[in-house]
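Reopening this one. Same input as before:
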Amino acid sequence: MVNVENIIRIIRNQLGLEVYNFDTTYYTKYMDLMWQWYKGKGPASFHSYTDTNGVTKITKTRSHLNMAKRVCEDQAGIAVNNNLVININDEKVKKFLLGQEEVNGYLGSKFYTRVNSLYELVCALGTGATELSLDKLELVENKVLANSDKVELKLIYHNGFEIIPLTWDENKDIKSVAFVNVSKELIRGKVYNKIYLTIHYLFDTGYRIYNKTLIDNNGTYNIVPNADNVVDVIETGSTIPMFSILKLNNINNYDLFSPYGASIFANALDALESADVGFTLFRSELDLSEKKVAADKGILPVDENGNQIMKFTELPNMFYVGDGQTLADGGLRIPFQEFNPEIRIEPITKAIQTSLNLISSTCGLGNNYYKFDNGTVKTATEVISENSACYRNICRNEMAIEDYLRNLLKSIIHYINYFKGLEGKNKLNEDFNISIDFDTSIIEDKAVSRERDLKEVEIGTMTVEEFREKWYGIPRTSENTSFIKEVKTEEKTDDTSNEN
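Same output, byte for byte:
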């Protein structure tokens, strides 16, 4: 983690840029706390605790269900998955961005995977971004040459730790930002942190991009010459940002004045602790419930000289009681006695389930999204109702994802036109419209939906071509009403087979 205050001081004092004031402890403490939970074990003060063995204090580590990461994974899996569809009304723009049949376009085949990963980190840290990075720039008299065929625009995905807001509007929408990338470098036999700083700063004339390299010398940052022919300053001449910020559509109640977003589990930390305490008790209960046998040493076999052939240490779950004396049980002399403690699995499971319900509810997944079953956490499989709190929260965050994607794609097309020098018939239309179709399978039973569409075809409100395209991915080529009969015949055959 970088020292945000030092970087802001350099941007202010050495670059002369105005930076709005915000509480940097939010960045250094709050996001670090969320990161600890996301990694699985939470803060050390919670997961490492002391107990006693009756003689002295001992240090123990709590077991963990890693529910913070599970929540982020599930939120990202619901919102950004293979069923997400980007609709663009301009065919030329659509072909450029998505490619022929939506493969091999500018966005590439890994675009959805990377957005999914970014959104998962946004759920954890509250903020993420995608930056348009320029590569292979051409310079003429130290000025960037626009309209160059060689220039490339790459997409870089940043998590919250790599984002430093500089200016923002009254709605906390970030207008100027610094992106941070840290690497290690060996200088004169000593390893230093090398910080690559890319600043997108908005002036009245448009965005200016600064590229600076810093060396961390024991917490003091110094600007060093950029290597690899990196251009120090780029004038874009446009007020359209070369980045798109993604934040959850919720209120940052940790700091109302911060431009950062809030983690999706920020208000569920107590519930996360309760779940881990319960799981620790669950595992401890299994360990302590192991059968034990108290035995008199007189039951051990001896040789002809009276020496014990076997020791108690060689017998698992048995321990020595007495010194050649038998155990007493109601006056009856017995050589050994079993100890079978009761396993309190049911009440502990209920306690863990209550914690899981609190987590899923607080994190926007409804009251019963998770189920603790046979020592593991499972996800509810039932269809989510359109009226459920889970569905409403998902839709609320999908609005933020749609804004992020729209801003990103608009920015790509604008700067492709500018830096590639596309004019006339080659120029891409920048006034295209975008809409996003998110996965609705979580709220709709596909079998029911398919049967409903079949009935729509029968009454003529849906064409056969539309049905084939929707359910079988067959392009619309010709009317073939017999296809519906074939589908129904297949279904009846399947039903008959199942009955048999």
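So the earlier flakiness isn't reproducible anymore. For the record, The first helix runs from residue 4 to 13.
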